Amino acid sequence: MGRIFLCWSMLLLLLAGEIVATQSGLDRMICALAVLMVLIIVIGFMKIFQAPSLAIIFAVAGLFWLGVLLMLGSLDSFTRTSFFTSGLPVSHWPWQSV
Amino acid sequence: MSDAADPHGPYETLRHQEETTIAGMWLFLASESLLFGGLFLVSLIYAHTRANGWAAGVRHTDLVIGGVNTVILITSSAIYTLAVEAARQDHKRRAVQAAMTAAALGLVFLLLKAFEWSKEFKEHLFPGTHFAITGADAGGAQLFYSFYFLATFLHAVHMIVGTGLIAWICLRAGKVNPGKSWNTSVEIVGLYWSFVDLVWMILFPVLYLVGRT
Amino acid sequence: MTETPASLFPERSYLWQDGTLRSWLLTTDHKRIALLYLVTITVFFATGSIGAALIRLQLIEPGGMILSDETYSRMFTMHGIVMVWLFLVPSIPVTFGNFLVPLMLGARDLAFPRLNLLSWYLFVASGLLVLYGLFRGGLETGWTFYTPLSTDYTQGRVLPVVAGVFLSGFSSIATGVNIIVSIHQLRAPGMTWYRMPLMLWALYATSVIFVLATPVLSITLLLLAFEHIFRVGVFDPALGGDPLLFQHLFWFYSHPAVYIMILPGMGVVSEIVSTFCHKPIFGYRFVAWSSISIAAIGFLVWGHHMFVAGTSLYAAIVFSMLSFLVSVPSAIKVFNWLGTMHGGSIRLDAPMLYAMGFIGLFTVGGLTGLFLASLASDVHLTQTYFVVAHFHYIMVGGMVSAYFGGLHYWWPKITGRMYPEMWGRIAAALIFFGFNLTFFPQFILGYEGMPRRYATYPEQFQVLNVLSSAGASILAVAYVLPLVYFTWSLFKGARAPGNPWAATGLEWQTSSPPPTENFARTPEVTSGPYDYATLDRLNRTAAEEAPHV
Fold this sequence. Notes:
heterotrimer; A: mainly alpha; two-stranded antiparallel sheet; 2 strands; B: mainly alpha; Four Helix Bundle (Hemerythrin (Met), subunit A); 6 helices; 0% strand
């Protein structure tokens, strides 16, 4: 009971943090806060550490392949140099400045 | 289903069945995460290759409704977790009450979402020939709104399924003498409900926050 | 293993325990669901074959024999979609997988029996939707549904077909979840991971792909349908969208799906090779882990389908190098099968003929894959008949051979009847011969530059095309043969003993056909798989004791 209330308040705090970060234009901060919220839900609400150990294996497997999808899937778009739209070459990684 | 393991089923004990069901649900959710993963790949790529248009789209979303809806979902998920705890302690009545509250909050979320959609339709934010945002970034903004409508639609479908599952839980609580297998059902529906909440925790910043200023 | 006394088992097997139609349609018995699937996919296999027959008929003449250009496009699309999603992807996992996983584990059923039945209904619904779309006009996009052809320019029935394929995905996911969770949770006492037959390792690897790749196909098709229905841009280049993004998403599923279409076949072949050589599989752990690594690496290589599509050179190089990696575990399997056969006393019954066909044809298919994984040679060979020949060597030469091999191998267990051995061998030889005659000329055609997906071709390619079509007609006869003698054997075949092949594995320790609850007592496993020494000792003891009984 108390633990759930704690998780709930932490989520609300993080949400407020996200809004503040938005107003300051801190996009990376928003993403970090969103990841924290996901973790709180997985640990606090879905109780992954009390679940059978198989659950953790499945969750990690899902997360791993999600990473593969996002990384290898964006590889082409972020390194393409021969593809022009509105005159701008699309040739930078997201963390590089154009 | 009764308290004893079904002698024709594949399980020796009820605990074994319970553990297996929960593991199976986690595996299904891993699968679901890749369903949304495909969507997030689309947003990841367009948010960077069409950054200006994408950001123009983000600026047109309604932050107030989105924020309120986020609070509602967080609360709903928390309350359903209370239902799971109550079911574990065999407090059936409390479990059903909490589950119904959670589902009601889910319905409020859906209503607000529908209102937000109708507002956006009126403002010609649905991609097409009369699209509201014009200029150099119109294409990227249309891509954003294509993503917006499909992502929120898919999430809403999951919400509706979740609400249906909670209703099923409550109905079953009235019918059978809910033994251990009912508690397991409460638990796996909870996993699903929290997962839908979790997806929104990522969708919300992607649709409303990142790139807004 | 010796014949267990019949009194240990109920009089009636799973086949006849309750004979009503209702009991079949509402069954949660994995063995019955396997049979429902078997009948269903046989219908789809026949449907897809008609498409293939028309394609080969058309290509006898350079100007085309019977079909208009547009009908031809619709025909190869129909052939591709039906064969991939309604036959090859489900084939072995839903039939032998469903039937054997609990039996091989020593369990009474799969972990989620009702989900298993649901997956069959989803599959039937998806099949009907696809067939509805195909018979109401079909579509001309090819099985890959590339945008913007499929969204903006198509005249065909994209929506029902896409909806059908979307549904079939959920059926696959349900099967995958069931198999993975069953293997984790329902192993009999003593059945450790390294005591599992290799078939289970292969099915586990396949299921990982089912569960983790199929959802990406679902979302891809959803995006496609969304763009098609509402005419909004998702992949539309006019809005700055990226059509290649569709291809990335599509192949993220569809390349691993290629391994869905071969891994279970490898599992079947491992079982057959071991049984008919009467030897444990050489390098068991390597074969087991090579299944897992094929599934894992299979997720990392999809970009090789897009080398000439305009992807970045950087991405192409990464995908090319990763593609070469897949050949390592594949080669491990081939060499270990050969190592198992080396020095064994090989019995050349029909299942073994199919298995040997598989090894040879898969090797040809695998080696020609290296040409397509290399950037330089792929530019020349892609979109030609070389590619068509390459993947048919894997999918038809490999998977369909393994499917037929498995069907002959487990037929006595499934039905309790023996098939006629001589006819089995004739069909196996005919399939091998017909297959090579059909597809080997296509390697040469492709190398000489004949593009795929065209209804006509220049005259200099006619001889090879006629050869290919002749092979296809032999193949057609060879596929009908088993249908005839299997049906015959259901009524007239000799009664099958519990273990007709002197094989190891728990499925052979119960009666043929098994009782509904699979085993009278939950079996206890005390030794590794393929333990022929123990099997032979028990058989000798039984033979010595027999006169006194």
